[in-house]
Each structure stands twice: as structure tokens, then as C-alpha cells.
Amino acid sequence: MSVQAPFILVADASNDNLAAALRVKDRAPVIECTWAKAAKTIEKSWPAAVVFDEPVTEERAKYIDGITTALAQRPEPYLPIVARVVADFPTVTPTALPISVSATPERIAARVFSALRVRTLHTTLFNRTESVRAAGVDLPEMSGGDPLDDATVLVTGRGRTYPELATVVGERVGMIGSLSVESAARYLNSRDLNGIFIGEGYGPPTVNAFLTALGEDARFRDIPIALLGGVPVSADLSRLPNFERFDARPADAVKWMWPLVRLHAYEAQLQRQLTAVEARGMLDPKSGLFTTIVFLDELSRAVKAPRHRKPNFSVARFTFPREVDARITLDAARQVSRLIRSVDFACQASDGSILFACPETELRSAHVLARRIASALKSTILTSDRKDGRIEPMIALAALKPNDTVESLLSRVSEPAQLAAE
Questions:
Q1: Which of 343, 373, 346, 33 is nearest to 190 (CA)?
Q2: Cα gap 196→153, rounded to integer Å
Q3: What are the DSSP calls for 367-381, one per residue?
Q4: Distance (Å, rounded) from C-alpha 269 to C-alpha 291?
């Protein structure tokens, strides 16, 4: 990763070891400054990252407003901010990535370099978007708001704190619960996760084997991982820059981890937007499915095919209970984008339901596909809004008839009927 802009290291006391760690492989120059000079240094240098090597204290708090103003003038591309934090004082800015006051220079540098991947992705997205729009292609806008609103986090554990941990996480983000690391490992390969919380109840061999597996797979190395409890850790953590260990209440651990989870969710947003740009606007960057317009165009082609050549063609609609939060239905749509066959296409309607088209598929086979998808959704998506925590979609199915129009075909899947998930 090439970095042209400098790193700013803010500290009243010099830390040569951290400066050296940030300069590894001559990534970028390091500018050291005190808290009093931090705001002006940020304004003048256009940094690639800012590291606060000392936590906020009463004395340093008077500089926060000036620093916040200076940081606000650098909105794009994403600017990584890593800050040492203690519980009694706030961090410099809510978006800063917290790190322990006892973290080694190498640990801090690893977190900075991990966050720089998001900066690079943001820059790539900006350049690709400008290029595609210059060619006259209309692109959907990137979703705004807090990335935590559509984040998905895996919670695993079997100890006494697991219910509290699952509740705290589920109240803020989409949550997947697992009572074993074996099932947790399966979710890693089937879901897009923005964080992992490992609760109490597992022995050292199990925890260390799980952490080792995460570190050995490049897909999972940057995921924020929180370990709660006193399990000794012998796994190599150098490949897990966003790992944190807590001997604290679940609520405190979750609060600490939110900035890291938010950044990973933001990276996922950027990646989905980039995919939509590369698809020249055919995909919805929120769900990963076709946009509604593209879906209807594809459906129209099937309906308008010559009557004697009309193939088997089926449509399904997945509908969720009205009280289910919008982020849950969005998470379901993203999962559907990974579950459907390459020949199928789908979109998410404005009411949160998912329309799923199956070309060259008779109704009976589409029924089987829909039940399998419903089963996957039911077994992996949890919410704190329902007593049993489970969400079971309602499903309606229809097959294309010779005299169908798009409107008549879709009207037959407007009233969902419950199908038992396999």
C-alpha cells in the first residue's frame, strides 16, 4: 500500500518506537507534534492518518474543539484516526479507533495500516465513480447515515454473560448468535460480518484455535474481534490488528468496539458501492441485488418472449413481519444475494420484501429453492424484537403463464402464504 501523505503523531512526550513503527518500509513520513499544535499541523499537512499516542486528560481536553474542527476540513477520502483511550475520559472524536494505553507501537501501527485499506478503497471508489459518470451513466448514491445501522455482528459463547452480550449487540446492530465455534465458523463463510464477539464458556484450546484460523485467512484478518473473559491467549495476534480483549461487562466491551465495527461496516458500504459502479448502476449498493428498475426490465423480457418460446419461469416474494426492523430485512436481502444461483435475479422492494425470479425453473423447483433460502434466513438472522429471536419469512410463489403481463405475474405473489422451511 503506497501512502503519499504523512502520518501525524500527536503526543506531548516523544515516542521514537511508535514513529519508527509507522515508518516501516518507508510507507510515509511521520510528523510529530504536541496536543497544542495538533490542530494547525492537521490543517497544513493533509495527513493520511492521525495517531493520538496519549489519552485525553483534563489538560488536553481544551484542545479537542480545535482538533475536531481541523479534522472536519478533511472529509474525503476517509482519514484514519487511532487514539489511546482510558475509560474515564472520552476519545478525541467519536469516529476515532480506540486502542489501549498499554498497546505496543507495533500494535498501533498495525491498526493504522488496517484502516488505511479503507482510505485506499474510498479513493478508488471516487476515481471509478468519476470515470463512469463521465461516460454518461447514472449511478445510485451511496447510502448515508451511520454505518452501524446496517452492520452485522456475530456473537458466540456459552457462558453466563452470553444472553446479556447478545442482547446488547442485538439492540444496536444486526446480530447472528452461535453457541459453538463450529457454527460460528460456518457463518464466517456464508455471511458478511462486521464484527465478532467471543463470550465466555470456551476453553483456551477452542478460543486459540478459532483466533488462529481467523488470522490465517486473509478474508477475516481485519474484522474487529472482541474476546470477553479471562481465557489465556497464545494465538499469534499480529495478524489480527483489530483484536481486543476485555475483562469487563458486555455493555462496556461493546461500547468500546463500536468505532471498529462502524469502520468495517463503512468499508463494506464502500465495497458494495464500488461493485454497483462497476456494474454501471445495475446493482443496488445497499442490498447487492438488482435495482428495482433493472429487475422489472429483466422480468419484462421474460414476459414478452414469443408465446411459443416462453420458458419455465417462476417468481417468489419473501415478506417479513411488519414489526421487523428495516436493517433486518436489508441484512436478509444481502444474504439472498449470496444464496441465489447465478442464473437467478432478485431485488428488494420499497416495503422491504424481496422479489426473486428463477428463469428456466418450474414452480415445483422454485418452491424448493425458496424454502431453502427461507430456512437459511430463519436459522441465521436474529432480532431482539421478537420473543423467540427468530424471523421466518412468508413466501408467495407464481409461475409465468402464456398470457401474463408483468403486473399480473407480480400480483399473484402479492399475498404471501406461509411455507414450512426445510
A1: 373
A2: 6
A3: HHHHHHHHHHHHHH-
A4: 16
Return the CA Rg of the chain. Answer: 24
Entry pTM: 0.87
Tell me the three cell numbers of residue 29: 513520513
What is the biggest distance separating any 2 CA atoms in the chain, rounded to whole angstroms? 81
Q: Provide the β-strand partners of residue 283.
A: 290
**Residue 98 grid coordinates:** 480506540
* One-letter amino acid for residue 127 of the chain: N
**If you average pLDDT over every residue of the chain, what do you get?**
88
Alpha helices by DSSP H, listed for 191-242, are 204-216
pLDDT tens-digit profile of 198-212?
A: 999 999 999 999 999
Answer yes or no: are the C-beta atoms of 11 and 53 closer than 8 Å: yes
C-alpha cell at 315: 417468481
Q: Compute the distance between CA of residue 239 and CA of residue 260 in angstroms, rounded to an integer.
A: 16
Torsion angle in degrees (nearest 10) through CA of 327, 330, 336, 337: -130
Domains of the chain: 7-134 (3.40.50.2300), 147-276 (3.40.50.2300), 287-411 (3.30.70.270)
Report the C-alpha gap between 353 and 332 in whole angstroms: 9
